[in-house]
Q: What sequence folds into this?
């Protein structure tokens, strides 16, 4: 992959300056990974909060930090929008005119349909934007928890449409691959539909499990409960934003989970051992059929 | 704790021979931990399956293995019942007359109310039995996956009743502590009520999440889905047995999870950001309020 990169002319061949709009956990990790890949790269991080800017510089996520997003974008040939999903589209539209003609804007948002639709209504933003979603993160927020290997062996979904510039699409796919990710392309609609099940509804179901915890049960907690509810510690504002951008697909998948719970309740109350075992076997087989992360092939990429 | 052990006369002071009825993952781990603590101890494992007996010996879980449970119990001053929960009570009643007058019978079952009730209807079994539930395990089964540190820093619930012999109760609590566990006592009813929420309903909810997986979503799976559904890979027969022994408390907690899911669905469909964020914040706080395993104190023990 690296060999073909060096011989094919690409927008990615000589990145000089990257701007990271919103240097939190994900933005900070983009910065660390970029700097590991290209040690000479200038990486400008932005945040409205001075403490976040300082933390991003201290953690080595960026070479400098500023509150001035326009200035950061004017200097950059790559712009990464790492704000909460509710602000990505407006930022793309606001900042696109500052970005060089040949510049590339991408993002790390967990939802894509609304973001891409809104951006594509703006001619300037549309010409420079390619949507991305790295399926990576953590419960902790802030650049101090950023990791240079956060995207290593992770899935990144790139979401082109008929409007997407093909050279920028190729460059964005290559960039994530160079940061260690397995890249797939999907339409924004398909992305949101599939993420509703595999990520968003899973998150809310995990929160529902955590929500019924009673004080007296805490001393009995084992690793099963801990793992099943790990994601429930995630940022409430971030997940509120995600839910509002993908509400109907998520609600549909939560109803599917409720239907499964209904089936469990019914067979437990009737004492129907055989059906209960069949339902559990089905869940076990689905879970066991999922390849472990190391078994996921880079050949998944279809850029 | 060790110092007081050596000076107080205890049934535990000189264990000579342990019988492990059912040397699977848990039984095998009991054997490994006992042998680590008392290298001279004779540990006899039983299984109906020759391959399991061979694997238990090969893994060092036991000093010998046999299909003859009666003979194993006749030689033992400690008997650990590590069969599926549906067979623990009948095994206790069947084997109690073989166990020495001063012998101790305990178990590792994940449910307690039905098991203890049934055992206490039998005079001989009742006099020797103390119920235990180590909150430890794994998705993999068989003695080849046993671990000598499986109980280290884990919770073990011991479930005495008014009928339980107090010296045996003290000995069982001490034994689990020596194997590294934090020991708590609870009535069998309270145990089952609390485990229904923290473990059993959590398991079935995790299975419900795994059950709605669609093929096309598999390449998008991230660590969130993996962790949330980890326990769904558990043994269907074992969880069928557990569900049938604790059906009504589990069903009640699954309904509580459904009610939370209803709330999420309602606020997503209405776009009520504030309520959604409040629900997520509540789940986050409950999750974050749970101490990490290393922070759980041995002082939890109330034996």
A:
């Amino acid at each position: 992959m690296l060999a073909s990169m060096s011989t094919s002319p690409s927008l990615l061949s000589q990145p000089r300056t990257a701007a990271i709009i919103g240097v939190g956990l994900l933005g900070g990790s983009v910065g660390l990974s970029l700097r590991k890949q290209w040690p000479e790269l200038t990486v400008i991080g932005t945040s409205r909060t001075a403490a976040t800017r300082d933390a991003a510089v201290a953690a080595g996520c960026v070479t400098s930090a500023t509150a001035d997003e326009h200035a950061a974008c004017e200097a950059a040939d790559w712009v990464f929008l790492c704000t909460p999903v509710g602000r990505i589209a407006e930022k793309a539209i606001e900042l696109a005119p500052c970005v060089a003609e040949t510049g590339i804007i991408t993002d790390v948002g967990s939802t894509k349909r609304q973001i891409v639709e809104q951006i594509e209504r703006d001619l300037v933003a549309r010409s420079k934007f390619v949507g991305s979603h790295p399926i990576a993160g953590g419960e902790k927020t802030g650049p101090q928890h950023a990791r240079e290997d956060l995207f290593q062996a992770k899935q990144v979904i790139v979401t082109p449409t008929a409007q997407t510039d093909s050279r920028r699409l190729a460059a964005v796919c290559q960039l994530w691959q160079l940061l260690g990710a397995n890249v797939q392309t999907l339409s924004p609609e398909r992305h949101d539909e599939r993420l509703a099940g595999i990520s968003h509804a899973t998150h809310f179901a995990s929160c529902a499990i955590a929500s019924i915890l009673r004080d007296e049960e805490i001393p009995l907690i084992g690793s099963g409960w801990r793992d099943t509810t790990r994601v429930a510690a995630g940022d409430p504002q971030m997940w509120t934003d995600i839910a509002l951008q993908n509400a109907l697909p998520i609600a549909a998948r939560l109803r599917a989970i409720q239907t499964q719970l209904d089936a469990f309740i019914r067979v437990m109350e009737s004492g129907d051992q055989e059906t209960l075992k069949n339902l559990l076997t089905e869940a076990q087989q689905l879970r066991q059929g999922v390849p472990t992360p190391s078994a996921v092939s880079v050949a998944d990429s279809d850029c």
